[in-house]
Amino acid sequence: MMWKERYRIGVDLIDNQHKELFNRLSNFIQIVQNDTHWEDKMDDVKKTLDFMKEYVVYHFNDEERYQEEISYPELEEHREVHANFREAINEYVRTFEEGQFNEKKIKEFAAKLMTWLIVHVCKMDQKIGEYAREKGGKV
User: What pLDDT, in 10s, does the model give residues 73-83?
Assistant: First the structure.
């Protein structure tokens, strides 16, 4: 599993959702690295795309709602980053639906998910927890 305790921001709801995202991504990367032919991985690719498309909306809504509750000053920037990532996921979904997913695209998708999730949680989301602790907000 790719989750590490250092990713924890101190908000149980958000941390648990991050753990779920990391768990799903870890499973997907194992599938991508499996020796089976890429065409045999398409069901798993579809499931991961569907999960990400739905779950990031669910998670981002909860995360942004928490930021509103604590009057987080970088909320609008955070919303924009979330919107850009949602659009990137939707673009992969469209590419898949158009039948244009191949081995290269699968690996690109896995790498993008991993990079984005780690960087976002380690940099941007950590600031939310720091802000909440500094302000004595509910963490």
Answer: 999 999 999 99
